[in-house]
Amino acid sequence: KLSKRLEAVASFVPTGAVVADIGSDHAYLPCYLVHNGIVKKAIAGEVVKGPYESALRQVKLEGLEDNITVRLADGLKAVEQRDGVDTITIAGMGGPLIVSILEQCPEVLHSVTRLILQPNIHAKVIREWAIRNHWAILDEVILKEDDKIYEILVLQRGDMELTEQETLLGKQLMVNKSDVFVEKWTKEIANWKRILSSIEKADHTTDIAKKREDVMHHINLVEEVLNDEV
Ligand code: SAM
């Protein structure tokens, strides 16, 4: 059975899409998509040999070799033009790594109409990348599984404007303000406050003053939302 996290990613894949799952590990996501009749064709890309072999094994075990092509490749290099990929999923990595993968071969994205991205941390850099590259957020989800909190961002082509607060927190997530959202950002504030108190103890160089200001700014941004001040 697929994890709740990957099931949520799968729920955003349009029926009949041609999907590339980058960093697929065991290829659980593409296997699930084919088994559930959501897609007929998928690419599973993996840059590390061990996970690549797990993906090959899983696809064979499930008898899906005709539907899923597993490739050992770095990021979007797993995608070939003739694949006709229109949807890309990248899950279970940090936001900065996801962005670096998206930036590595921009031409691969030409045929792509939907990106489903699940950063473990720093979703903010994905929102910043999206604005710069003319992608807009279609949907956003925050969920908790095994005591970890995950965000999923669904992007389609288009322009969007986000405030600094919306870029950090997610516009829809901020409005929904689910229990998981409040939990995530309450923990984040506690962590920033710990950082602040350790900064207080250190010597006061200009560098530290700047860092302190930056952390306080973030605390204020998030507290405004948690305390319903926006
Ligand atoms: N996507 C699966 C999931 O969400 O459960 C697996 C997540 S796993 C934590 C991250 C995987 O991404 C690892 O198997 C790693 O080898 C792979 N990976 C990291 N950087 C990559 C890259 N540049 N190209 C392809 N795969 C990459």
TrEMBL record:
Gene3D superfamilies in the record: 1.10.287.1890, Vaccinia Virus protein VP39
Domain of life: Bacteria
Any Pfam family the entry gives: TrmK
Protein name (Swiss-Prot/TrEMBL): tRNA (Adenine(22)-N(1))-methyltransferase TrmK
